[in-house]
Amino acid sequence: MTQIIKDAPTKKRTLTGRVVSDKMQKTVTVLVERKVKHAVIGKIMSRSKKYHADVASVATCSGDLVVIEECAPISKTKAWRVIEVLNRS
Fold first, then answer.
1. Strand 44-54 and strand 78-87: pairing?
2. What contacts 35, CB < 8 A, 6 or more positions away?
3. What is the pLDDT of residue 33?
4. Of 59, 56, 61, whose CA–CA distance to 29 is shortest?
């Protein structure tokens, strides 16, 4: 007799970043910066990456600080969704 155990709900990754482009219709580009310590030198360096995020329900403009959440792929480059706006510019 086998027992089926339901998986616990997976925790989705969330990132905080600044909107750098809102020129697309339902998409914004979010720049996420993080601080990383260099393995050899030990210097703290800034690393950044841009993500395309869906903004179906939240109104955002360039310069806003937002929280994005990972979701199922929406398009070729878009797999994140804007959850909330922390600071408006």
1. parallel
2. 44, 45, 46, 47
3. 97
4. 61
Tokens of 83: 């959850």
The separation between CA 1 and the C-alpha centre of its own chain, rounded to angstroms, equals 43
pLDDT in tens, 54-66: 998 888 999 999 9
The residues facing 33 across adjacent strands are 48
Residue 70 counted as domain residue: yes
The range of the structural domain enclosing residue 38 comes to: 14-87
For the question of whether the overall pTM of this predicted structure is more than 0.70, the answer is yes
Calculate the alpha carbon distances from 39 to 25, 34, 46, 89 in Å.
41, 15, 14, 36
Q: Which amino acid is at 68?
A: I
